[in-house]
Design goal:
globular, ATP binding, alpha/beta
Length: 374
């Protein structure tokens, strides 16, 4: 019998299994605005997909390290908290880390709508089936979908399909990168990709090593993530990657999160308590960082960022004392300044889903906030 990638129903010991060969895709510009499965089949009811001239395998090697282009200039992501506190360069890889229900989908929709890119490729790995249309119609909207390709495998899909959703999204992004486009690749989530790999590895007889994850999972993660980034030397296209990590129980040191954080070029932490306090996107700017910030900020911007971090950090340290009345105003000028300015900085970080922005605008707003009330 021939076994497809949808499941193993009907398979028994002694059955003949036929290998259909490696999966390939033929993406092209006609895929923009469409939703496809990992096999390149449309699932949006929009009719047949056009086929590109060249077949592209799901698995590919990243550009050779010695001949790979360097990161490009900084990119406007359109989210003030990220533009100011985790400034991103073109071709960089960032990881939003969050537990479920903290606003990852809303953050992705803001990036897809407002980020400065030519094409957005969105990989939804293990997504809830009912949420696909909600994400496309409500969060992404016509403006975001028009320049996007969405690759989706829902949570009830076979683990091979969920794994291949991540690989297919990367292959589509590589197609547009090689065509000279500035690609923003958003994958939600790397954790579900790792869970699919765990199912496959355990089914193949691998021993569970770290919290139930077999060793092959941690070998596969860099093979996927290293494919994002700048193209080969001379290629004007790039893949700026945002790979969300679903942390279980807000444990940011669990194995997948720890491994991914070591591969990426920075991380953005979404905190449930910030969201519960009513500030969205719920980015914890003190725990977020971009490893490329020193190379993409001007000296005045670095000074603004350093001062904002000091103010927010001091305010966080003294919040309980102020709340309990244990601190008396005038005892420490730095604390007085933090108590006065931290709420104004928080207002800058608060942003509606429809709002866009730039890095320069984010720093201008920060500088105005730290100048104090008019």
């Amino acid at each position: 019998m021939a076994v497809g990638r949808q499941g193993l129903e009907g398979l028994s010991v002694g059955a003949r299994v036929e290998d259909a060969g490696p999966v390939t895709l033929r993406p092209c510009a006609g895929w923009l605005g469409r939703v496809v499965d990992p096999m390149g089949r449309p699932i949006d009811g929009g009719g047949p997909l056009p086929r590109g001239a060249a077949a592209r395998p799901l698995r590919a090697s990243p550009p050779a390290a010695g001949t790979r282009a360097r990161l490009g200039p900084r990119i406007d992501l359109g989210v003030r908290a990220m533009d100011a506190f985790a400034t991103c360069r073109r071709g960089q890889r960032l990881g939003p880390f969050a537990a479920s229900g903290v606003g990852k989908s809303s953050l992705m929709s803001m990036l897809a709508r407002h980020a400065d890119c030519d094409v957005a490729v969105i990989g939804l790995v293990g997504e809830r089936g009912r949420e696909l249309r909600e994400f496309i119609e409500d969060d992404l909207g016509p403006q975001g979908l028009a320049r996007s390709v969405v690759v989706c495998a829902t949570s009830d899909s076979a683990p091979l399909m969920r794994r291949d959703a991540a690989l297919a999204a990367m292959a589509v992004a590589e197609h547009f990168r090689d065509a000279g486009k500035r690609v923003l690749l958003m994958m939600d989530s790397v954790t579900r990709f790792a869970m699919a790999l765990r199912e496959i590895g355990l089914s193949a007889g691998e021993p569970p090593a770290t919290r139930g994850f077999p060793p092959s999972v941690f070998a596969e993660l860099p093979r996927l993530l290293e494919r994002a980034g700048p193209g080969p030397e001379g290629c004007v296209g790039s893949i700026t990657g945002l790979f969300t990590v679903l942390v279980e129980g807000d444990d940011h040191d669990e194995p997948v999160a720890d491994a991914v954080r070591g591969i990426l070029d920075g991380h953005v932490v979404l905190d449930r308590r910030i969201g519960e306090g009513g500030r969205y996107p719920a980015v914890d700017v003190l725990r977020s960082l971009s490893r490329t910030v020193p190379g993409c900020l001007e000296p005045p911007e670095r000074a603004i960022l350093a001062r904002a971090r000091r103010i927010l950090s001091l305010h966080q340290d003294m919040a309980d004392m102020v709340r309990l009345g244990a601190y008396r105003a005038g005892s420490d000028p730095a604390v007085d300044e933090a108590v006065r300015l931290a709420p104004l900085i928080e207002d800058v970080l608060r942003q509606g889903k429809e709002e866009g922005g730039t890095v320069a605008g984010a720093f201008a707003a920060l500088a105005a906030a730290m100048a104090g009330p008019a």
